[in-house]
Amino acid sequence: MKRIINYLFQGILYIAPLAIIIYILYRVFIVADSLLQKMIVDVFDVTIPGLGILTLLLFLIFIGFLGNTIIAKPLKRIFKRTIDQVPLLRFVHSALTDLFSAFVGKEKKFNKPVLVKLNLHYALEKLGFITEDDLGFLGQKNKVAVYFPHSYNISGELFIVPKENITPLDIPSSEVMKFIVSAGLMGQEK
To answer: What does the alpha-carbon distance between residue 135 and residue 160 come to, in Å, rounded to a whole number?
Structure first.
């Protein structure tokens, strides 16, 4: 019996926020629709269907803007300041942020898929992505940085490879990444 009551309260906790949001949106829609329709009918003697939906959308956009500028940005600054004060945490956060932005960020960095010859005697090759074309800052000329993702894992290795061992591939990066991560089990979709 105690378990059933516990499940009941957990169900309420899961549903309550959604129900409250739906109720608030419904009330805003009804109030906005009735007030605006009345004002427009009084002034212009015209009924505009869907005015409540438009008002509700504008209201949600405004709330989203306020939440992003007044709430989210200060919280992000506090979070960043906290991370910057702990050296190890700052290092890990920076590395993970760079890695995730390379996969899904605006500046997707894994956009140059290549086939790299690893062993000249056995024609052993490996799929990877060029992450840096110019390694002059490392004192390495005519070499590039190639990232090799591991299969079935969210990790990989970075190799410094002579340019002559690189063969650029004319295949979408997402297909190459899917092929590598799936250990070659997911071929290119037809």
So the answer is: 9
User: What is the H or E stretch that residue 56 is in?
Assistant: helix 51-66
DSSP H/E element including 27: helix 2-44
Around Cβ 184, how many Cβ atoms within 10 Å? 10
Name the CATH topology of 107-181.
Answer: SH3 type barrels. (2.30.30)
Record the tokens describing residue 39, joined without a space: 């004002």
Cα(148)–Cα(41) distance, rounded to whole angstroms? 66
Query: What are the boundaries of each domain within the chain?
Result: 2-85, 107-181
pLDDT in tens, 28-81: 788 877 887 888 878 888 777 777 788 778 888 888 888 778 877 788 888 888
Quote the CA–CA distance of 154 and 166 in Å, as a whole number.
Answer: 24
DSSP H or E segment with residue 82: helix 73-85
**Measured distance CA(135)–CA(163) in Å, rounded:** 11
Q: Which residues pair with 161 in a beta bridge?
A: 144
